[in-house]
Amino acid sequence: MGLVSTPATVLKTYEYSETSKILRLLTRDHGLCSAIAKGARRPRSRFGGLLEPFSDGVATFYVKEGRELHTLSGFELRRERQALGRELVRYAGAGLLTEIALRFASSEPDRELFEQLGRSLDRLVAQNGAVETAVLEETWRLIVRLGFAPALDPCSGCGRSPAPDETTHFDLVGGGIICDGCRRESAALSLKALAPRARTELALLVAGAADATVLETIRFQRNLLRDFIAYHLADHRPLNSFHFLEQRLG
Amino acid sequence: MSVIDDLASEFTRLPGIGRKTAYRLTHYLLKIPPEEACRLARAIEAMAERVRRCSICNNLSESDPCEFCTNPTRDRTVICVVEEASDIAAIDGSGGYRGLYHVLGGCLSPLDGIGPEELNVDSLLARLNGEVREVIIATNPSVEGEATATYLHRAIGSRGVQVTRLARGLPVGGDLEYADGVTIAQALSGRRGM
């Protein structure tokens, strides 16, 4: 295929040999891929401080068929997000978003996923207050984009839309809500009681409409998101960055 | 598995060594005089047996406490915090620092599951005993290094100790024309009066 250029976000970097770095990139046109930046760790490297996690730019690399590691020839910086390192909850949130992209994006190009990740990271940089809400909301946006949106209405058992003041249950296995009536008939062990307020706030988060709201059920939402990711995306194992986020939030 | 395969397999466990390089190193060792190969083996064995972590600063040393912590000529009012023991050689080799060191053992990394609990932060805080007036945070100039510095600043800040961070900007002898935008922006924001 030869030399290609594509917008890319640096998800993670690894030191390689004495002078090089290996990058995991989410690219607009080539999906998730890896590239080696030779000499990037030399003090006077042309890559300098460009190849930092969360940075956006246009990556130019040589692609060889059948190879998984490409050779980076250039990276034209479009947006650096070093500010994320200056506040630990933002940093943890950005880590969570990039870990989700690393673990669950594919090598097939997904323009919308790429652009969503960029918007989500931008929001974490710019968010004024309610940072935890922003982290949860942007995480749900990525999950929805990856095709794992939970079904919040109607009940996945009987198909009835629950009343606004009705307590329902979130079925982790089914990935949606079930009403109290269906719960009695269900043998599912993966149910979490969903009070009306929690359901309303979950719907706001999943729809991306929570904005800067300080959520009343924020801890519940955090636990639910952690369990949802672990069950549906991560082979029942919580993500490292989610654990880091929880430690920062207490 | 033959002895050759066994050694090559051990080499592949080292960072940056793939299968081909491992076999190249193995065959090199087979070509040199046996006493040279044995000398290398003894050096590795001695290192593994004698080198340990300093119980004060977590530096790697043959003695505990290490040579920096026991040296009476070092300035004991300043501690330079580094990510890895190998960073000490770079800073001390510069000749511009005569204080003490503290090795964190890494930096905060959500993706790798490294939080403050995995770093040597508690032992650093325990060293801030009144004699120390300044802590220089010399973590790498990366997002991870910045996040680690931010955490340390918060953790140390309330103890009445001055916290400073290594300056960031253009390398000495570098060429402005070829510097990247991030480095130039850092140099501009950290400019000094003359």
Question: In words, what does this structure look like?
Answer:
The complex is a heterodimer of chains A (250) and B (194). Chain A is α+β, with helices and mostly antiparallel strands. Chain A has seven helices and eight strands. Chain A has two domains: 79 residues, OB fold (Dihydrolipoamide Acetyltransferase, E2P) (Beta Barrel); 168 residues, de novo design (two linked rop proteins). Chain B is an alpha/beta fold. In chain B, the strands form two sheets. Chain B has a four-stranded parallel beta sheet. Chain B has a two-stranded antiparallel sheet with strand order 1-2. In chain B, a hairpin with a 6-residue loop joins strand 1 and strand 2. In chain B, helix 1 packs across helix 2. The N and C termini of chain B lie far apart (67 Å). The relative contact order of chain B is 0.08. The mean pLDDT of chain B is 93. At the A-B interface, strand 1, helix 1 and helix 7 of A face helix 7 and helix 8 of B.
